[in-house]
């Protein structure tokens, strides 16, 4: 752990609770002079002091984590990529570390500005079209829900423990037969398997009939049944979680979050926390072996691995992503600080795109971000079942990544030199906010610096920057 100076945050914490410096020092069992040095950034904040803060004041120490600061810095670099005057990385790091509330306010303003820009573009495109009513897009519900899951560290304790308790009570693997019987016995829901091309699950609440596609694999069938069971038996917990103000402002986002939480419960029921984490550690996070042991798919295992952040017994903090051939990110779940731009695309050197060229093969990659952080990524394609002749088959690339300091626990680190900085592939958060000057794959210029254009020189990289 690098040294953390959090003086401003400590002073703010004390002010919020109306405590004097002496009172806070007493509560933390520290000398007033030592606390004064912490608040003046003359002493770094240690793990021992962080634990005292958590115990004495009930503060989530995640607020002081390097991961949270790194996420804020990444967001600030995107938000301030084209400022009136140059802002250095150390300045952004200082802002994120010392004044996170202000940093988050800057990000909110940036998102509002981006939404307004989208609205202006939509209005421009629609002006003069008198055949339909003018529509102005709002902030997407998907982004609201994604931020909601990130704010919870991609872990929901009440749902996770309820699912684990249910699985433990059963004593055997949760399968579709048991789930179907429980839905019928406890909730009067009958199951109907039929040919379906438009839905994976459709519940008729009036008739109490759950319609499911006949071609689902047992694990897929169990997941859909468990999702319906969550909506029936975890209604109170799901409603309480979705009462968050950010979700109440957008009905579509609230409904999406309810589905996401029901899916979360289903995954936790099929892959119970403690048992699954022990199996993952035992098998060194070999996803294929975990999929075989639990009878589920590659994507399901990856998604569950990204949720194992129970306080006291956390797993590896993974970042999970699903992309299509066009580069669209349709799923993004994170228990860590990895960040890609919301605008300007992602990085073509990232192995999630290379995986499309070698379908079905797991591809490991050490990747280094511009801030120097190195990650171990694995990527593999998955293909959905066909819904009939002539219908397009869905193919995605699944990526699962973690900080390189956890890589030694994973089977995918075999043969990789984790200590050699030159082994890692340099990638970025997206061309428009990536400052790597010599990248031959750059699609757009970096907006943070002016272009250097010289008609007498042709570069290997498509754009050059002025100092």
UniProtKB/TrEMBL annotation:
SMART domains: HTH_XRE. It comes from the Bacteria. It holds the Pfam family ScfRs. The lineage of its organism: Bacteria, Pseudomonadati, Pseudomonadota, Betaproteobacteria, Burkholderiales. SUPFAM superfamilies: lambda repressor-like DNA-binding domains. It comes from Xylophilus rhododendri. GO terms for molecular function: DNA binding; DNA-binding transcription factor activity. This is DUF2083 domain-containing protein. InterPro entries: Cro/C1-type_HTH, HTH_RamB, IrrE_HExxH, Lambda_DNA-bd_dom_sf, ScfR_C, TransReg_Diox_bact_type.
